[in-house]
Amino acid sequence: MGKIILTGDRPTGRLHIGHYAGSLKRRVELQNSGEYEKTYIMIADAQALTDNADNPEKVRQNIIEVALDYLACGLDPEKSTLFIQSQISELCELTFYYMDLVTVSRLQRNPTVKAEIQMRNFETSIPVGFFTYPISQAADITAFKATTVPVGEDQLPMIEQTREIVRKFNTVYDEVLVEPDALLPENQACMRLPGTDGKAKMSKSIGNCIYLSDSADEVRKKVMGMYTDPLHLQVSDPGHLEGNTVFIYLDAFCRQEHFERYLPEYAGLDELKAHYQRGGLGDVKVKKFLNNVLQEELEPVRSRRKEYEKDIPAIYDILKKGSGEAREVAAQTLSDVKRAMKINYFDDADLIQAQVEKYR
Ligand code: ATP
Ligand code: MG
What we know:
InterPro entries: aa-tRNA-synth_I_CS (IPR001412), aa-tRNA-synth_Ic (IPR002305), Rossmann-like_a/b/a_fold (IPR014729), Trp-tRNA-ligase (IPR002306), Trp-tRNA_synthetase (IPR050203). It is an enzyme of class 6 (ligase). GO terms for molecular function: ATP binding; tryptophan-tRNA ligase activity. Keywords: Aminoacyl-tRNA synthetase, ATP-binding, Ligase, Nucleotide-binding, Protein biosynthesis. This protein is mainly alpha-helical. The protein is built from 16 helices and 5 strands. The chain folds into 2 domains: 4-192 and 312-355, HUPs (Rossmann fold, 3-Layer(aba) Sandwich); 216-308, Tyrosyl-Transfer RNA Synthetase. It has helices at 17-33, 45-49, 56-73, 90-98, 104-108, 111-119, 128-131, 133-143, 156-172, 216-224, 245-253, 256-262, 269-278, 283-309, 312-340, 349-358; strands at 3-9, 36-43, 81-84, 148-150, 181-183. Helix 4 (90-98) crosses helix 8 and helix 8 crosses helix 9 (156-172). The strands form 2 sheets. It has a 3-stranded parallel sheet with strand order 1-2-3. A two-stranded parallel sheet has the order 4-5. The longest helix is centred in the C-terminal third of the chain and has 29 residues, at 312-340. The structure holds adenosine-5'-triphosphate and magnesium ion (MG).
């Protein structure tokens, strides 16, 4: 069987350069590589509702934003199935059955969920849906028999949880589900891109983002205001690279050709870093360089987005068609799952016959 990709994003805001570096850019490459039999890209609205129950309008409004960002980055509906999670009710059924295969203590050990609970001040009262979202993610992945899940580092515990559910299901019932592998970014800096405040992961829920759809001016302002090295007060002071967001972004985005175009007095990033550490290189110069690098990367995305924005009903049509295709695949898996669990009573002639014998 060929390799299958499933991945997605929560429609809690427009997509940012953390998504781009951590997952989106890679997805487009994978989609175009010809190595995958199918690529499924899901807008995870049901998951977004697990921690936005009191703000459903936010989720509803952001579906189109995420879809526009997808298309702007080069995800192609001819090659990838783009769909909306809530439209595939089979995913809820799968989640319900997988819940029997997972313990509360196992969910409590999930480090990403732990951190997210803290971030959202859910410590004293966690919505059950939010607590169990790793199980619903297992349903999303396995419904499409995905082999490969391109994600950022924060998603590793979810993939591990999925693999455990698959093994348990296949052992208890029958070999129906496929164990997926996470596909992490190759570049260390892209694993978990920090926000412009340097404090945490760039995240829609924190608001420390450079969005793919930000104007050139907004990007420039955010870059010029970025967190660097608090000890680097004067240009002549030696600077530090650890935790320095500007250099982390350069690690993630800058290529050799950017030096030739925007900073020819340096041979490359290593030389720039060495100068910064030695002292004598100001933050403003480095930020201006980063701004040039980001603008070059984001300009084509921005202008493609503008084109797609001209026909919004067409975007909903793409999602509707994709959701229809996705639903057929998920329904097939659900049917396999129910057969393995032997809860397909009406198709089970042996069961009916056995009951006949019992009462003969
Ligand atoms: P939210 O704050 O609503 O959770 P988010 O910004 O964390 O939003 P998600 O929709 O949860 O975004 O994540 C979608 C995908 O993007 C996941 O694969 C995740 O690993 C990846 N991702 C998100 N933020 C980053 C980041 N800062 N760096 C690298 N990858 C990221
Ligand atoms: Mg997240």
